[in-house]
Design a protein that fits this description.
about 0% strand; globular; mainly alpha
Length: about 100
């Protein structure tokens, strides 16, 4: 639950506030991202390889999810999406500490 709240805040800041994506869309993106990150990072990669690999997988997954979600918004500038996604991925890494 804590991971979902952190992801929702992060996605809302990057997509909702900065790129004007609706709260419903940010909620859906956060829900899907949290479920996939939990299954892939926490259940599979963490058990097999440990925390560093799970943390990096969270960063990569969050980066691409936010970048792709932002890429669908034709009004935002494409050069803003990668740095915003990287910042969100870094925030996601913090949740694994």
């Amino acid at each position: 639950m804590l991971k979902f709240v952190m992801v929702e805040v992060m996605v809302y800041i990057v997509l909702g506030a900065a790129m004007k994506v609706s709260i419903g869309d940010t909620f859906l993106i956060s829900l899907i991202l949290t479920i996939v990150a939990y299954i892939l990072g926490d259940l599979i990669l963490f058990k097999a390889f440990g925390n560093p690999v799970a943390t990096i997988s969270d960063l990569v997954l969050t980066f691409f999810a936010i970048w792709l979600a932002g890429a669908g918004d034709t009004q935002s500038q494409p050069l803003i999406n990668p740095p915003s996604a990287l910042a969100a991925g870094g925030f996601s890494m913090y949740s694994n500490r």
